[in-house]
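Why does residue order matter? Because the sequence determines the fold. Keep that principle in mind as you read this record.
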Amino acid sequence: MPKISLISISYLLNSFLSTALMFIYFFLGQTNKAAELALISSFILVLLQIFSSNKRNLILVTKNKELINKTLIFRIIFVIPISIIFFLYLNISNLFSVTNFILFFLFSSLWINEIFIAESELKKNYNFSYYFILLMVLLFFSIILDELLFGKFFIYIIILFIIFLFSKQIKNIFTNIQILKYLNIKNFKNSLYDNILSSTFFSSFSFLLSVFVWRFFLIKFLSEEVAIYFFLVFAIASFPSTFLNNFLGMTIIKEKKLIFKKLYFALTVTTIVMIFLLRHLINISIPIFDIFALNYEIYKLLIYSLVGTIIMFPAMFIRLNIIFISVKNSNLIFYLDVLYGILISLVVPTIGYFYLNYLNTAYLICSIISFIFYYTIYYFMIKK
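Structure:
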């Protein structure tokens, strides 16, 4: 397995667990549970990953080992106040349960683990990736098996996963002098400033808040039973660009830029074929499909969203190029991300309030906005 693929798979599994669980519960027939998980996980990710994706990109671009240690210590310590905020949110929203609280620690462990993956990528040490991928496969298998046969061991499975995840890392943390030196008030304050008051914080916050806003208003406009289909379709449509933007893209730009053209060609061909097949199914009456509610509307949602996939993918690649080419001015693009986040956050609420029947075009509209926004920035900042 190529090293770049191994690392990419690690980032993929580390960051898309919530989406994977949503799909698992949906296909097991638990649509309400899948919708609730989607909303809960998106709020947790807003609390956690606002400090996440851009930090990883900065670590890989700058190869700053000190930034790795500072970010790692920050995340380990900051889990405590974030957990209190999440606990209060659950109580206020009448959503408190042991399972929901355990979910927080599951995603917190992955939030911290992201830095270990970035560190292993810089050191070209891929042993941890093999271990982590195996651990995630076992996690998925255990959860599915529990849901099918028992339905009562989810909490214990998650606790065991967290223990095994960090079993290889705890010793390194407490024996690493470079990391331990940040365990003082002064360095922690500096780390707090770097993570919360930095441009990367506001950039990540705006991206992730938009996801929560979309899911919140989709449930408000459509109900959980219908909204879950939008969650799943938007997750499928946005997957290529999200994976590129947060995980694979910077590696491609640094090492194998030509891969992007091949990837985009493959993505475009695959998407067009899928769109053609879906359009064909819409125009053909197949009795077996009558058992599915909202069948016609789901197909239209898929088609519009898949067209958006083709547009969104190059938009995110343009954004990464801006960051990579103008490292010294990267703060500017991060602050502009805030404006972008506000714009896309307004898409679903605006359509829902004024053009409810056109909610299925939300991702397509978001993709068009994204491409225009980042190409304009690229033209004036780089190309011109």
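Residues 216-383 form one domain.
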